[in-house]
Each structure stands twice: as structure tokens, then as C-alpha cells.
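INFO batch 0412 | record 1 of 1 | parsing
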Amino acid sequence: MTYQLFYAPGSAAMGTRVILEEIGAPYELIESTIDMDKPRLPEQLAINPNGWIPVLKWGDKAMYEGAAITVFLCDRHPDAGLAPAIDDPERGLYLQTLVYFSSSVQNAFQLDYYPDRFADTPDDEPSAQRRGARRLRETWKVIDDQIGSNFWVLGERFSAVDIYLFMLTTWLRPSRGHPTIDEFPNVKRIAEAVLPRDSIQLVYRDWIAGDNYGY
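INFO prediction complete | emitting C-alpha cells
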């Protein structure tokens, strides 16, 4: 069976693609966009009426939300070793961190990149963006403190959480008022440890080469 992934450079779908590479599953990319001025594919909107990606299809089933897709794929392909088992003591921290990434850190990025979603008028959008920058500093500090001296986010075990962390660090833009990754040494250490993986080198080769996807 081949997965289908609605995909665009610079989006959270890149993290999903890394997971697909890590588990070794065959997949097909369906070109989409994160440009709010461009239309979404009807098939994508039929699955996720919000118009966001990633959207994952397999057979006659489909789902959206990056963290949920991550949990689904890792549980469906346990041989890849990317997630603690349901009865593993680290399972709680694994789920907690993925949800925090998707609900808190990503929301802070949205405040900056999509301020119109949070402001009543265009005049209010700069305030939303400033709050987004402050919220990024707050949320990344929480993650940095959580990691502490751990080798990986969950301790000694590499997991999908480390991939998700890396994905989010690629969205940091100090030129937009975001904090630099240097402010969070534990986050930076893990992101640098994830970088050499073959899956990252493939999926993020343009970002590694210095292409910021138009941000």
C-alpha cells in the first residue's frame, strides 16, 4: 500500500514526509500550497476543510493534523522504533510533547505568519505578530527546560518527537522578531543531532542549502 501526502515545501507536511522516510513506507507526494492567496485542491478540502496540510491518505481512508498523523504512522509501523509503546513509561511524555508542539508552539508561529486569523482588523495584525514572537520565546523555553540534559527529547531514545522538534526549528526567523535557536541550547543540540539523518538530508535539502521557502 502506498500513502499519499498532500505536501508543500516549508509546511508541516515536511515532518510527515520525514516520518514516512524513516519507516520506509512507499508514498506519493501530491503538490499543494501554504500560500493563502492560492486555491486548495478540492480533494484536500474534502478531507480537511480548513485547507491546511499535512493531509495523509491510505486506501479509502484519510486524516489530517500533523501530530495525529505522526502518532498514527509510528503506531502503525512499530518496527521503525519511532515511538514508545502504549505501555512504555515514556509514552505519556511522548504524547504530551507532540501535542504541546502542535497546539502551543505551532500556534505561536501562526500568530506571526497568519496574523489575520487572530486580529479583527489589519491594523491589529502587528500586535498579533508581536505576541507570536513573545509566545515563541515562552514555548521554546518550556521545551528547552523539559529536555534538560537528555540526549534526545525522551531521554536516550531517538523518536518522532525529535523529528517534530527539528521541523519546528526550521521555521524560526529572527528577521521576523523570532528568538534565535541559540537561546535554547538544549533544543539546538537536539536539532543538530537530527540534521545528519538521511531522511532529513533528503527532505530538507533545499532548506539546508539556504532556501527559506520564501519566508
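INFO post-check: The two ends are 35 Å apart (CA to CA).
INFO record closed
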